[in-house]
């Protein structure tokens, strides 16, 4: 493979990399080589048919598409239709099952009585006041301020402790901000205007995006094994971990990883829902995924189902990074890496690993479309000679 014959090299076939590659090829007619060190396209959104049950599984955990962005929704419709799937999650705690995210049904079940929305608010407000924290300092304070002590102890503390292996009082309040609290019986997990599952699965989206005569896909190739072939005139879109790009010169950014334990059961339905969380600290896994429920519209002919039990832990260097931990030390390290990017003017960093940000799929796609419009297109918009000029000008602008 000769990398130097391509206008653009994209590192990573996840949503960020795939969208940029698709746009460069279809909008600008430029040649792109997309590399991935994994043997498949799609990054963490990759899905495949399980060899034993035939059910489409998400190898890196259940992925539900949801967005409020019309731009992203319209863009993806060029590559797939969506089903009308609506995600609903349940949590098992102390021998009972509760609706999650916390809604009026959860509050009534936890307090053991029927409550109106006003009564539920008042019960939670009284507990929050008794906790007596002025201002929100950490995940525990934020959670108790919004759901009270009873629900926090039952559904949040143990789950969060297992998920992060960190005392919730030492975790950032932002983490829990992703989880809504509702004083109605609306039990949908997501409240976005658009939600659904891609009709033919996620991998089909990537296949269609990357199916262009100007795009060449190279799988099982680590960028750092071929980086010496890249010339300064080529544009590189790097969606791998930013600390690895710089040889961990400023240290390792903290990530959490998850391990999945796969089981195939000879039953048509194992648990009755796509995802069930386990809040108790003495249950070692955080949740069980059962993928067949993501596509109730499909005729699943076998009385067999595949489940994944999910276990959470800190990532070591050789593990797949999943969720940025984002401590104050991580943020300082990230700032040092950002300062180092100016010495690589032909490289654009993006995606969840390249930006060290938790991004949902619609956010990764939205960010890639913006990066294409504001950074990639202005550079590549002209002829190859102009590209060289812009690149050279950028290089000469860099401090010595
Ligand atoms: P990725 O998908 O991670 O792609 C990066 C790619 O770069 C990878 O394929 C990697 O192999 C490749 N790469 C890295 N380094 C190199 C290298 N040196 N050389 C070559 N290739 C390299 N989002 C939702 O919207 N809904 C959900 O329900 C949802 N569930 C999730 C559940 C879990 C457990 C996790 C972890 C994430 C979930 N997400 C969900 C987020 C979603 O996975 C991300 O938005 C998406 O993966 C971001 O795409 P990306 O291209 O930035 O990164
Ligand atoms: N959370 C919890 N109990 C649950 C689900 C979530 O305590 O049953 C908390 C936990 O701290 C988690 C945060 O809410 O880290 C965000 O939840 P989300 O579902 O967004 O986490 P993800 O599925 O992305 O890991």
Summarize the structure.
With 400 residues, this protein is of the alpha/beta class. It contains 13 helices and 16 strands. The chain is 36% helix and 18% strand.
List the uncertain runs.
Answer: 394-400
Task: Please count the helical segments.
Answer: 13
Strand residue percentage: 15-25%
Can you tell me the overall shape? globular
What is the helix content? 25-40%
Mean pLDDT: 93
**Main sheet?**
7 strands, mixed
Derived from helix and strand composition plus strand pairing, the structural class reads: alpha/beta
SSE succession: EHEEEEHEEHHHHEHEHEHEEEEEHEHHH
Which ions and ligands are bound to the chains?
flavin-adenine dinucleotide, uridine-5'-diphosphate
What is the topology, as strand order, of the major beta sheet? 7-6-12-13-14-11-15
Explain this structure:
The structure is a single chain. The chain has 400 residues and is an alpha/beta fold. It is 36% helix and 18% strand. The protein has helices spanning 15-28, 70-76, 104-111, 117-131, 139-164, 174-177, 202-210, 223-226, 242-245, 328-340, 351-355, 361-380, 384-397, and strands at residues 8-11, 32-36, 47-49, 56-58, 65-67, 89-93, 96-100, 194-196, 215-219, 235-238, 255-265, 275-278, 287-290, 305-314, 323-324, 347-349. The strands form four sheets. Strands 7-6-12-13-14-11-15 form a seven-stranded mixed beta sheet. The protein has a five-stranded parallel beta sheet with strand order 9-2-1-10-16. α1 links the parallel β1 (8-11) and β2. α4 crosses α5 (139-164). The longest helix is centred in the middle third of the chain and has 26 residues, at 139-164. The two termini are 33 Å apart. The relative contact order is 0.20. Uridine-5'-diphosphate (UDP) is lined by residues 91, 100, 155-156, 159-160, 163, 175-176, 178-179, 277, 279.
């Amino acid at each position: 493979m000769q990398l130097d014959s391509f206008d653009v090299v994209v590192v990573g076939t996840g949503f960020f990399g795939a969208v940029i590659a698709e746009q460069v090829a279809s909008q600008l007619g430029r040649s792109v080589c997309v590399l991935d060190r994994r043997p498949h396209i799609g990054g963490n959104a990759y899905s495949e048919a399980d060899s034993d049950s035939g059910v489409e599984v998400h190898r890196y955990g259940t992925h539900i598409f949801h967005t409020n962005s019309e731009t992203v929704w319209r863009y993806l419709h060029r590559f797939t239709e969506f089903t009308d799937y609506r995600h609903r999650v349940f949590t098992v705690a102390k021998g009972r099952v509760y609706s999650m995210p916390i809604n009026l049904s959860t509050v009534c079940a936890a307090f053991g009585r029927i409550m109106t929305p006003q009564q539920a608010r008042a019960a939670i407000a009284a507990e929050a006041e008794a906790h007596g924290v002025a201002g929100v300092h950490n995940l525990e304070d934020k959670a108790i301020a919004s759901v009270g002590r009873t629900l926090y102890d039952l559904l949040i503390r143990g789950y969060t402790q297992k998920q992060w292996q960190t005392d919730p009082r030492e975790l950032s309040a932002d983490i829990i901000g992703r989880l809504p609290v509702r004083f109605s019986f609306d039990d949908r997990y997501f409240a976005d205007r658009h939600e659904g599952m891609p009709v033919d699965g996620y991998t089909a989206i990537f296949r269609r995006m990357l199916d262009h005569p100007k795009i060449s896909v190279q799988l099982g190739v680590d960028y750092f094994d071929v980086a010496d072939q890249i010339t300064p005139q080529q544009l590189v879109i790097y969606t791998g971990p930013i600390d690895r790009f710089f040889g961990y010169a400023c240290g390792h950014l903290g990530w959490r990883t998850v391990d999945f334990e796969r089981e195939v059961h000879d039953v048509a339905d194992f648990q009755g829902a796509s995802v069930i969380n386990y809040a108790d600290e003495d249950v070692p896994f955080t949740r069980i995924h059962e993928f067949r429920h993501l596509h109730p519209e499909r005729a699943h002919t076998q009385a067999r189902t595949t489940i994944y039990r999910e276990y959470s832990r800190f990532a070591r260097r050789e593990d797949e990074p999943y969720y940025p931990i984002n401590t104050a030390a991580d943020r300082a390290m990230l700032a040092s890496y950002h300062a180092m990017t100016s010495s690589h003017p032909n490289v654009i960093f993006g995606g969840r690993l390249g930006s060290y940000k938790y991004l949902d799929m619609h956010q990764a796609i939205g960010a890639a479309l913006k990066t294409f419009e504001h950074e990639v297109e202005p550079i590549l918009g002209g002829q190859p000679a102009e590209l060289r000029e812009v690149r050279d000008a950028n290089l000469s602008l860099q401090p010595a």
